[in-house]
Design goal:
Number of domains: 3
Active site: 370 (nucleophile)
GO molecular function, one term: RNA methyltransferase activity
Family: Belongs to the class I-like SAM-binding methyltransferase superfamily. RsmB/NOP family.
Radius of gyration: 24 Å
Bound molecules: S-adenosylmethionine
Largest sheet: 9 strands, mixed
Structural class: alpha/beta
CATH superfamily of the largest domain: Vaccinia Virus protein VP39
Strand content: 5-15%
Shape: globular
Domain SAM-dependent MTase RsmB/NOP-type: 156-439
Protein name: rRNA cytosine-C5-methylase
Helix content: 40-55%
CATH topology of the largest domain: Rossmann fold
Number of strands: 13
């Protein structure tokens, strides 16, 4: 593809996202677009994706400039602004790409031409920009993130706006970390042990993993180091009865199966049966044989009541705004329909209340989200504890040595007893988790 044709493809994808009436994530729209165009080669795919994600990563500042130039943020103007402000093209280079030749975009219209002359040579940042714009923080999350991050707000926002490294979890049902490093090296991929997760690897660069022996044989799974730590905090051991209540496609379920060495039982439950189906394929490849998939009608499905007090460990990886995953999904910040935080937090409490019924006396419930907002974490847990005197928060520092005796606890990760991971501090996605223990049954005479 020519550079101009790549720009056209990127604008087409932005148009499809804009025209859709759902909040389809950019990666799934782009994936569908590329599947229908198999002729687009890998270098072109990478370049197209970089432009699309570039418009999202820099959206607040691009919009600020468009607003100042009285231009609407349409896909074509967004791309023009991106190429000038982020890719640092000059107006002449831009016009050469927008010349209508073959697959190139049509030449700039008058207002676009005025815009191009206005933006060319400007730097993306401007001293008049409000802090939230400089930090690429959407309005709906600003107050909550400022409250959660305090003076680290801008630093964490910058880290949340960078591309994440690729992390792998070694599937100990198939092999060791050393074997995984060696298998990846055979495919020319350099991996080093993660800082905190004893079963993690961090890759250098962004290598294509699809065809590697390590991935195809189930020896490794792509999983952020923070997600790995969260699964380890559950403390599932061989022989236990465990529920992964919001299992989705089973990223953490598979990690739990490996901790349990296939002994005992894990129920992977979710209201989304299609996501659970994806787990069916993954568990075969991962040689995980102790997982039972349980589609739920709602969080109050009768299955929950029937299994009251039956489980040693219950993980609730609750649906959330995903503010901690913006490194991977920068488009999630700018969702069109807006995010109904009150509705989401009510659902999180419903899920937590219902899933807690599954925990046996003396068992543990781990509540986690990939959001940094207190409204989705500490506030939910505080509300839960207020209504459930039989549970207590086990402070992270108290639980860590028993759960991960050989791994260093990430610096400042214990925030008031909760695990709090963030990209600037720990190089992981943002996660918050609470370990809640149900009192053991008291002996009655
Ligand atoms: C953060 S995702 C889980 C990701 C998954 N644990 C993993 O590691 O890949 C949240 C999940 O909660 C599920 N969910 C949403 N509402 C639910 C409900 N009312 N009861 C149970 N699960 C729900 C969603 O379908 C989604 O799969």
């Amino acid at each position: 593809m020519t550079p101009g044709a790549r720009i056209t493809a990127a604008i087409e994808v932005l148009e499809i996202i804009r025209a859709g009436d759902t909040l389809a994530p950019a990666d799934s729209v782009l994936g569908d677009y590329l599947r229908q165009r198999r002729y687009i080669g890998s270098k072109d795919r990478t370049a197209i994706a970089a432009m699309i994600y570039g418009t999202y990563r820099n959206r607040a500042r691009i919009n600020w400039w468009l607003d100042h130039a009285r231009s609407k943020p349409r896909p074509r103007t967004l791309m023009i602004a991106y190429l000038l402000l982020v890719e640092r093209m000059d107006a002449k280079q831009l016009r050469a790409l927008f010349d209508g030749y073959h697959y190139n975009q049509q030449p700039l219209e008058k207002p676009e031409s005025v815009l191009a002359d206005r933006l060319a040579g400007q730097s993306l940042d401007h001293p008049d920009m409000p802090e939230a714009v400089r930090g690429e923080c959407p309005g709906w999350a600003e107050a909550g993130l400022r409250a959660a991050l305090g003076e680290r707000f801008l630093e964490e926002m910058a880290a949340l706006n960078k591309e994440a490294a690729t992390d792998l979890r070694v599937n100990t049902l198939v092999g060791t970390r050393e074997e995984a490093i060696a298998a990846l090296a055979e495919d020319g991929i350099f991996a080093k042990p993660s800082l905190y997760s004893p079963i993690g690897l961090r890759l250098s660069g962004r290598p294509a993993l699809g065809g590697t022996k390590a991935l195809k044989s189930g020896l490794v799974e792509v999983q952020d180091e923070g997600s790995q730590l969260l699964a380890l905090l559950v403390g599932a051991v061989p022989g236990m009865q465990v529920v992964d209540f919001c299992a989705g496609a089973g990223g953490k379920t598979l990690a739990l199966a490996a901790q349990m060495q296939n002994k005992g039982r894990i129920v992977a439950a979710d209201v989304n049966a299609r996501r659970l189906e994806r787990l069916a394929l993954r568990q075969r490849r991962a040689a995980a044989h102790n997982i039972e998939r349980r589609p739920l009608a709602t969080e109050r499905d009768p299955w929950v009541k029937r299994h009251k007090d039956k489980f040693d460990r219950v993980l609730v990886d609750a649906p959330c705004t995903g503010t901690g995953t913006w490194r991977r999904n920068p488009d999630a910040k700018w969702g069109r329909g807006g995010i109904d935080l009150a509705e989401l937090t009510a659902l999180q409490s419903e899920i937590l209340d219902s899933a807690a019924r599954l925990v046996r006396p003396g068992g543990r419930l781990v509540y986690a989200t990939c959001s940094l907002l207190a409204a989705e974490n500490e506030d939910r847990v505080a509300a839960f504890l207020a209504g459930h005197a039989e549970f207590r928060l086990v402070p992270l520092s108290e639980a860590w040595p028993g759960l991960l005796p050989d791994a260093p606890m990430p610096e400042a990760a214990d925030a008031g007893g909760y695990l709090r991971l963030s990209p600037a501090r720990h190089g992981t996605d943002g996660f918050v988790a609470a370990i809640l223990e149900r009192q053991p049954a008291t002996e009655t005479a």
